[in-house]
Write a structure and sequence with these properties.
By secondary structure, this protein is an alpha+beta fold. The chain contains four helices and ten strands, in the order βααββββββαββαβ.
């Protein structure tokens, strides 16, 4: 069975965020890191080479494959700040409608600029995901 590429490691979160070339994206990444640290009360950790994660959960597929992933996380990608919510957004329509300018994928929230969203709503989304996933095992 192949190994997961995105695993928790001892990479330097601050150095990773400081290396973001776009100054607005870099500042937004630091703000999101502070926000997630405050909400989760867990220190950030690098997951792979480009994701900052908080907490963790285990998953198990019907095929037998297992792994571990961050309960919440983010990455300051070139096109947008990508925030990872492993449970997706089916239960979060109420919050997403209040968030501000964003797009979503299955379990990713894409934000161009933090100034375009309501950070309290983002805090609520982070809190929901973290409480639902941290320390759990999910079977899919």
């Amino acid at each position: 069975m192949s190994q997961n590429k995105t695993t928790r490691n001892d990479g330097d979160v601050t150095a990773f965020l400081d290396a973001v070339t776009d100054p607005v994206r870099r500042a937004d990444a630091h703000r999101v890191c502070e926000l997630m640290t405050d909400v989760t009360q867990v220190p950030p950790a690098m997951w792979g080479t480009a994701i900052v994660g908080f907490g963790s959960y285990r998953y198990r597929y019907a095929s037998g494959r297992t792994g571990e992933s961050a309960a919440v996380g983010f990455s300051p990608r070139k096109a947008s700040l990508t925030v990872y919510f492993p449970g997706g957004f089916d239960a979060d329509a109420d919050l997403l409608s209040k968030l501000g300018t964003h797009t979503t994928g299955k379990s990713c929230l894409y934000i161009k600029r933090l100034d375009d969203i309501d950070e309290q709503v983002l805090r609520d989304l982070v809190d929901r995901s973290f409480r639902a996933f941290d320390g759990t095992t999910v079977t899919t």
